[in-house]
Amino acid sequence: MKKNDVILIASLLIICAISLLAIKLWQKQSTTDKSYVRVEVDGKVYGTYPLNEERTEKIQFENGSYNVLVIKDGKADITEASCPDQICVRHMPIHYSDESIVCLPNKLTVTVVGGQENEIDATTN
Ligand SMILES: [Zn+2]
């Protein structure tokens, strides 16, 4: 092999590797970036939070009640709330598209937007 051939092959391999990496990164981002949770209070959008970022958000209401929204491992969960029934706290973490946690006493709704398709529940419903 000539020296030029080696350089050509080497650069082709490098281009290949870079584009593969770029595609992988792009795929990873496109699947995780699009899903988020939408928090609504009394029918109004309070905020939206991406599911791929870990965070703890305390949603505080004027009357002193609150819900603590925790996003972890791509799932959203209410870990703490001031409501008497605690139904929202007992709810499993959500990550499927259109899945939601509702806190009736606080008029709070947490809904997954653009998450995984809920194939298991679709058949049982
Ligand atoms: Zn609640």
Q: Summary?
A:
By secondary structure, the protein is of the alpha+beta class. It is 32% helix and 34% strand.
Overview of the molecule:
It contains three helices and seven strands; from the N terminus they run H-E-E-E-E-E-H-E-E-H. The chain is an alpha+beta fold and about 120 residues long. It has two domains: about 1-30; about 35-125, mini-chromosome maintenance (MCM) complex, domain 2 (Sandwich), CATH 2.60.320.10. The chain has a four-stranded antiparallel beta sheet, with no helix packed on it. The protein is rod-shaped and about 80 Å long. The relative contact order is 0.15. The mean pLDDT is about 90. Bound molecules: zinc ion. Zinc ion (ZN) binds near residues 81, 85, 88, 103 and 105. The site of zinc ion (ZN) has 8 residues, from helix 2.
Question: Helix fraction?
Answer: 25-40%
Task: Give the number of domains.
Answer: 2
Largest sheet: 4 strands, antiparallel
Compute the separation of the termini in Å. Answer: 65 Å
Which fold name corresponds to the CATH topology of the largest domain? mini-chromosome maintenance (MCM) complex, domain 2
Shape: rod-shaped
Counting H and I runs of at least 4 residues, what is the number of helices? 3
